[in-house]
Amino acid sequence: MSSVSLNEKIPNNVDLAGDRKLQRALEEWQPNFIDWWMEMGPDGFQQDQIYLRTAVSVEEGGWAHFDYVKMPDYRWGIFLTPSSSERTIGFGDQIGTPVWEQVPGDLRKELRRIIVTQGDTEPASVEQQRLLGKCAPSLYDLRNLFQVNVEEGRHLWAMVYLLHSYFGRDGREEAEEMLVRRSGHRDSPRILETFNKPIDDWLAFFCFTMFTDRDGKYQLAALAESGFDPLARSTQFMLTEEAHHLFVGETGVGRVVERTAELMKAAPSGDVKAVGGIPLDIIQKYLNEWYSSSLDLFGGEDSSNAAIYFATGLKGRYKETTSSKITDHVALDGCYSLQIPNGEGGFTSQEIPLRRAMNLVLRDSYVDDCYRALERWNGVLEKAGLTERLYLASDRFNRRMGSCANLPIAPDGSMMRPEVYAGRIADWLPTQGDLAYVRSCMVSVTEPGKFAGWIAPPRKGIDGQPIDFKYVQFH
Ligand code: BYC
Ligand code: FE
Ligand code: FE
Prior knowledge:
The chain is mainly α. It has a single domain, classed as Ribonucleotide Reductase, subunit A. The protein is built from eleven helices and five strands.
């Protein structure tokens, strides 16, 4: 394992200094990244001191260092989980053979595509969240937003390192393109649809970090099983940072639910809006919107791409090699039974070969995780003595990908007549009025320890600091 170099222009544990050509190429990309960050990163806070953690090592327990830093001075580095010399491919047709340290020629196109797709999401999310700092509900939340943003920047570095190191000129061109595409741009959008949606308020931000970053967790975990070892080790380390993003999302939604529950009991006639809170039905519509959009990120249920990725050892299942529940790592025999629309208003069962269903298998792990979070939020409502409950919509609802794409299906999964569906959609997805109301709740709160009225404080602070710690020092 190569040691960690923190004092170089680009902090790394990949012995960058030992490969001058690569080092020079990445050092040329670095100012372009900073230009992009200044243009598309958090608007208005680049001169402030933020209490941030920086990855400084890959040791469990001691990998992060917390201190005040101006975001443009953040030390974006390249860190890979140490390699184990005996690692073999854990699944697919080449199971048991040594992992690859270079890109196999016949898989170059597929690998490049996976890495570019993964890399593209990272800057996209920073662009989507660019204006949120101006209406943060507290210093604690403001700091968490910026923590997520700088780490998504580091995740871009992780993928750009792979492109530069292993894909020659094509890779360098792809790395440039990462800084050219823009979230929501008409002519040059980001690759996956969810990353072109606006995130204009903090409830959307919490839903995004809950549901969309969580897709990231499962995709990264699937890639951490990859036979291409540099990709596996890069994504493995990204997962350590990802945990905080998911925490921000899950607890963020939970804190909004908690505050709403308090207001429902306190407000005369339970009118939460009258006292500046976000009504439960609006929260539900936001959950529907971001959950359904994030399900699209798993691709189609029946996918030949997914079958190829699995067969060739590029992308495994969640915990493919560490879960005792997965015993057959070749997956040539099994079938997966799914329900698809029958064209007559109902659904019919279809069996597909297991390998073609790998997107769905990964998605199932994700859905279980989302239900676990849902139960926590409902636990908050129960504890408050309320009978209302939140739900997760059927995986058929509001889809743009897969067998249920663009069909008039209700959140309970039933097919509707199109005109009936159209009449109900305002009950299920945020309306312009809902979005405007939530935006009207967004006020900037910058006094340490104070929180906007629509959200409850967290249980504890960051890095053992108190909740009223000065997480951001304005210049
Ligand atoms: N939008 O075979 P199919 C994260 C395309 S998030 C637009 O069913 P496949 C993060 C697809 O490309 C994790 N197009 O799908 C989170 C294909 O095109 P072609 C990101 C889509 O390929 C928050 C066609 O439809 N990482 O890290 O098996 C903040 C048929 O597709 C979409 C990855 O995604 C879509 N949603 O699966 C920051 C991992 N879905 O071939 C960061 C890498 C599919 O007809 N990506 N298409 O031209 C992959 O493994 C796969 O590309 C996908 C799609 C899972 C995304
Ligand atoms: Fe990321
Ligand atoms: Fe993330």
